[in-house]
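FAQ: What does the model actually see?

It sees only this:
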Amino acid sequence: MKRKKKRLLFVCYGNICRSPMAEGIARKRLGPAAEVASAGIGATGGPAAEEAVLVMKLVYNTDISSHVARPVGIFDLGTFDHVVAMDVSIYNHLRDIWEVPEPVLYAWDIEDPLGSDYDTFKESALKIERRLEQFLVAAGLDG
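And it is asked to produce this:
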């Protein structure tokens, strides 16, 4: 029997910095083994931040330049195996407003780099990568 692909959703505020970088890093890391998406609780469309695009290209050799910010409401949140909030306030919002069940909801501690320089975005991306590796081991997805 073919195992169903795990579905992961990364959520930040605007879906232009942290969650698109997390989506890009997770896609590169997991390949076709998982379905990965990202969204924002306050997303209003628009492209990923220039610095995020640059970090993903230079550090991860991954192109997120065609990313368009998506609001979390366009997804059926119940279809995801794991919903990762990029910080505690996003976690609380997803739990309280969107009623994402706690067994599938995870809170990370990635500060929003919006308005910062390239190096801050790079630090955020590297922190996302470290948290992702820990998460994949804990969730049994690193195989």
